[in-house]
Amino acid sequence: MDDVGQSVDFYSKFLGFKLKNRVEETWAEVENESVVIQFLARKAFEKEVNEFGGREKGGTFLLLFEIEEVEEIYKKIMNLVEIVDRLKKTDYGTKEFKFKDNSGYIIQLTERVRD
Question: Which residues contact 109 (CB under 8 A, 6 or more apart)?
């Protein structure tokens, strides 16, 4: 994460996570029911894993959450975040959409559709 504090704020505001633990601006842990996410500042991560030092962020990474009430959440945040893929019903039985978080990573929210 580029900025751990901004990530905590983003995931709290838009996805309902609550701060569980934090170590200054280096590391934080947020929780939403049974889901826990840990954020580690990029500089601290590069020190811990030398292979990643100096690399650009990005790549093919998607963080997927299976949730309920995806339409309501979409309506709530659609004008507040960068939508990558609008809400749609898929051929494989879900409603889903994708958006970017504060660091540019893609988040997908998915709900299984019951017939």
Answer: 64, 65, 67, 70, 73, 74, 96, 97, 98, 99
- pTM across the whole model: 0.80
Task: Note whether 75 and 64 are within 8 A (CB).
Answer: no
What 3-state class would DSSP assign to 112? strand
Domain 1-57 architecture: Roll (3.10)
Structure confidence by residue, pLDDT tens digits, 34-47? 899 999 888 888 77
Domain coordinates in residue numbering, the chain: 1-57, 59-115
Phi and psi at residue 60, to the nearest 5°: -110, 90
